Amino acid sequence: MKVTLFDFQKDALNDLRKALVKARQGVSSDDQHVVAFSAATGSGKTIMMTALFEAILDEPDDQLAWPLDWVPQPDAVILWVSDMPELNEQTKLKIESKSDKVYRVNQLITIDAHFDAPRLDGGRIYFINTQKLAVNQPLTNRGDGRQHLIWETLTNTARAIPDRFYVVIDEAHRGMTSGKGAQAAQTLMQRFLLGHPDSGLVKMPMVIGVSATPRRFLDLIAAAEHSVTTHKVAVPAEEVRKSGLLKDRILIHHPETATTAEMALLEEAARRWGHMTTSWSAYCHEENEQFVWPVLVVQVENGSDKQLTKTDLGAALTVIESAIGRRLNEGEVVHAMHDTGDLDIGGRRVRKVDASRIDADKNIGVVFFKTSLSTGWDCPRAEVMMSFRRAEDHTYIAQLLGRMVRTPLARRIEKDAALNDVHLFLPYFDTNAVKSVVASLHNAEDVPPAETGSSHNLVILKRREGTEDIFNSLVETVTYRVNAARAQSPLRRLMAISRSLTLDEIDDHAWAVAKRQIVEWMGERIVAIKTTDQFNVSANSITQVGLRTLTVNNGTGIAEPTADYNIDATSVDIDRLFEEAGRVFSNGLQMEYWRTNAERDAQEVKVEVIVLARNSAEMAVLESKAESAFDNLYDLHKKAIYQLKEQSRSSYDKLRLATAKPTEVPWHLPASIDFKRQQTDPVWERHLYVENNGLFRAELGSWEAEVLKEELAKPDVVGWLRNLDRKLWSLEIPYETGGSVRPMFPDLVVVRKVDCKFEIDILEPHDPSLSDNFEKAVGLAKFAEKHGAQFGRIQLIRKMTSAGGEHFARLEINQTAMIKKLLLINGNPQLDDLFKNHS
Question: What mean pLDDT comes out for the span 598-610?
Fold first, then answer.
């Protein structure tokens, strides 16, 4: 793959591997196996399927780290079925751009009207859409010298190679509804699942149905007359959201009451588009990223027989140009309305484009639509949408908006939180009507999970003026990220960081040195194995195959052993085991060892690698060395890493976090953050982030609010932070509970100025009735033990009653004596005693 897969994508692919391993073993022309693969819109389903195709036709990408039960099938056939030509073309382009093992020429083949073959050829990915399968199409008729109907071609392929013919149905929920039951195929798409005797098509033996909502697909399978073995693979929607592939928020701009001032809101939408264009330009220039040219989507009203649309397109273009302060460039405005070609609007040429082509054409800035284009439309650049539709059309709006929430760079932007938003302007929706849009946006079939709400409540906060010194002091502190990245083997992490350090020109020799060092360690571990009898035993089991001969007495029928003997394993066997060992080491390290020892007997060297890969004790020693080397490299270059651009720096953070135990990382607070509040929420002073008007509003819990009032009454408090849960920028501290490690997010971070220096305090008001009280206290103590020098007060706070009435009791954790006491407790009663005696 040319891209790095997200952890949730690797998990889904691993589940697909398990499903297909089972399907391969049992599938036949009479035993159908179906995989229902559900993945939310925006999860990168085509990228996941591309990685799967690589594994089928070539070999699994190294980053998948698949076990050895997977065997590639270079002669397999993959058929991608959709109901739109645009979808197929879009998929072909994406596979070609993301794969380094599947090639467009000769491997990615569109089945067109001229296609005529007895079978589909192995090693290829075919694309077909159901429109070409209608009764009046060339593929389904014998005219013009055709020898094989497409149905015969598919049937012949299914019968010849049932375990190597993969039929992938894209958007598998469509065309699956059957009001009369599913005993017979009632749509072209259903024929692939149920077969169609009238046309000579058998049911496809191995089907992968891909859908955001597979219920209809599964219902059809469940009602089928024949037996079907079903395998379900699902991608959790929340994991997709956490990945950064989707925009964080959808901001709906609307009047308090429905209005006729539609052009005023279009003007505001165009201003927002212009602002986002400027922001993206600044970000991409600063980060040396490919330029992101945002798109303004304008959804217009339907027309009539004599009128294309009731929306005045000329007036709309004039308003847009007025808002951005310039005339729109030639080719910058397009439309994707099916019922007309290019348009001339007030002397401006508005060309027609296919929806699937919009993202690739970087000249396009404004797009006119009518109703939803929920298929064929995939434009992560679409940042702002204005709809002239009325409230009764909220479903159309939701469907179209669902294609706009992908992030342009396939990752969350840290520096400018506003670039993680999508804006929707609705002039004909009042406050109540907006609720119907929000409800539609919770339909997983059309829209992925994202925080949705009125622009009145979803705001962007920026650093308060005059806080530069405070933020500079926070740079010296650390945070943790619990379960933020999937654990990788130390060998993989060491190879990845050394390669990145070299490619990023931080350390030109890191990659080469790491490979040499690992090869040296491999040699040392092999020598260690050879000092025992274990090596010879293991080597013999690899190089020799034991055979036993049984003699069957023809008269009695009794079998008796007569001889045991050994034969040498072939070079092919050794090579296969050598490649399997390479999956254990990863990154071609087995070949590095083999090349380093090129002067020796090749088979002997390969056997050494195989023996080492199978020796868990010595592999543990090797991994331990790699882990230490990784830490040393990171510590040596962490200042240079911090100076990198955002995307590069985040890759190092992921590697740093890809361990079984939580690891600290520098605490980076961005220039802006997103925030949700009500306009009626209380105003608080001295917060580190504020709105454009300089205010910070938030509804705090009663304890948090009272503790904060006590803090703000102190003259040395110069700033504070509402530490939200599970944000990329949150202060996060690990604690152990129930045998696992979880994150805690202390409610308040308070900054005091003491003797010209800033003290950073961590304050956690916590209800003593909660069962995790002592566990969080121990977590704070462990944090203070390791990082207390970077902070001032670290307090666990609870409300208590005494003779003087209610008050807040504060347990000061950032003291050596208290840390020792807390590390010894194992229950809430002991914590209660500490509060009574030491708070």
Answer: 92
